[in-house]
Amino acid sequence: MNDLDQLKDLDPARGREPSAMEWTRSEAFIERVMAGPAPRSHARRWLTAGAVAVAAGAVAAVAVPALVPGVAEKAVASWTAAPTARTGDQVLPQARACAAGDVGGVTSANAADVLLAEQRGDATLLIMKKAGVIVECLLVDEDQAASMGLIDADAVIAPPAGTVNLETMSSLGDGDGQWSNIVGLVGPQVTAVEVKLGNGTVVQASVKAGWWAAWWPGPEGGEVDTLTVTVHAGDRTTSHLPSELP
Amino acid sequence: MSAEERFRALHRDTYADLLRFVERRVPPDEAEDIVSTVFMTAWRRLAELPEDARPWLFAVARRTMANQTRGWLRRKALDVRLGGRDSHVPDGSAFSAARIDLERAWRSLSAADREVLALVAFDGLTSEQAATVLNCRRSAFAMRLARARKRLQAALDPAAPSLQLKEMNA
């Protein structure tokens, strides 16, 4: 018997099985939960280069080309915690590159399609409309994009005033090229959103046209609640774990 | 399979394990609320659940306990309760003495060591799954586990500091 086997004797839940009453209560609880708001219907994640289209509806997430090796490292190395806001006109080449990708269907872009655009070092992050779908793109050079479908444009419902929701967060890559993103909708009166990571880094998110978004180097977007989201609305400031956000 | 069917299957497959995971760490009268919160979160994020959902649920449970347990936030590890006090052990037997030594050694460890050991010995997770629960890399978890096992062995047998640890299968 090794040391770990010996330890099993100390297990406070050894042999513990839920009673019939506990099963019944818990089953009744999940039925009540399911009677409430529906779960998010799309698993949205960045996909790597070469992924075959897995379209199962307009919002399938397919990224071709994704950030190729070396490009993610370049984006990470030049990253800044505070973004520089960009207009649709300023990022038109990147918007066109995003529009030409498969995610959300190939379209051609104009400046008005860009809902949110920000620059952090070498990387441009876009949230834009593509044929009825809202997509997110991260580009380092105009032809090096990672993109993700977010939501059907007609499904966008603004959160209540002063609040935000979380549409998705995720991470991609590993090592020096690993990065995370977070995206959601903002209600009226939200003036700023910050993401505080477990290591103390505070990332200033971009807020524009009903959306908030940020990306940063590191794995937190793929983890459970290792960051907090702080929402500023007038003189009111609230902080939330991702799992607490609607 | 509809979302509802998938969620019922998830509940059926994981409820007992999740309840045990939580009851190892908080008093039983607090466990039900925490388990309910975890399933509520899982329903809202059903599309994001990985295929191996159990470590994901445990990670949410661990975070939920951290938020709900007063004073926990200042500590890094979620402590594990000690069980088996009501098990019948004949007084004075060799087994009883070994059990007392084991309990004493367990109590001498840090909460962080106990948490790492419990994830494998009590919760039955692999290193990969335990790393998911603690939000660390598998290699980091393996190192923490090896160190915790060394300290456990040292506490059990202070006279033999370089005890060979048997390889773990997990």
UniProtKB/TrEMBL annotation, chain A:
Q: Which UniProt keywords apply?
A: Membrane, Transmembrane, Transmembrane helix
Task: List the transmembrane segments.
Answer: 46-68
Residue ranges for the region (Disordered) are 1-20
* Listed name of the protein: Uncharacterized protein
Phylogenetic placement of the source organism: Bacteria, Bacillati, Actinomycetota, Actinomycetes, Micromonosporales
From TrEMBL, chain B:
Domain of life the protein comes from: Bacteria
Q: State the Gene3D superfamilies in the record.
A: 1.10.1740.10, Winged helix-like DNA-binding domain superfamily/Winged helix DNA-binding domain
Q: Which SUPFAM superfamilies does this one have? A: Sigma2 domain of RNA polymerase sigma factors (SSF88946), Sigma3 and sigma4 domains of RNA polymerase sigma factors (SSF88659)
Q: Does the keyword Transcription apply?
A: yes
Q: Which controlled-vocabulary keywords does the entry list? A: Sigma factor, Transcription, Transcription regulation
In this chain the RNA polymerase sigma-70 region domain maps to: 14-70
Q: Which GO terms describe its biological process?
A: DNA-templated transcription initiation
Show where the RNA polymerase sigma factor 70 region 4 type domain sits: 101-152
* A GO molecular-function annotation: DNA binding
Question: Does the record carry Cell inner membrane as a key word?
Answer: no
| InterPro entries for the chain | RNA_pol_sigma-70-like (IPR039425), RNA_pol_sigma-70_dom (IPR014284), RNA_pol_sigma70_r2 (IPR007627), RNA_pol_sigma70_r4_t2 (IPR013249), RNA_pol_sigma_r2 (IPR013325), RNA_pol_sigma_r3/r4-like (IPR013324), WH-like_DNA-bd_sf (IPR036388)
Q: Tell me its family.
A: Belongs to the sigma-70 factor family. ECF subfamily.
Name the record gives this protein: RNA polymerase sigma-70 factor (ECF subfamily)
Recite the lineage of the species.
Bacteria, Bacillati, Actinomycetota, Actinomycetes, Micromonosporales
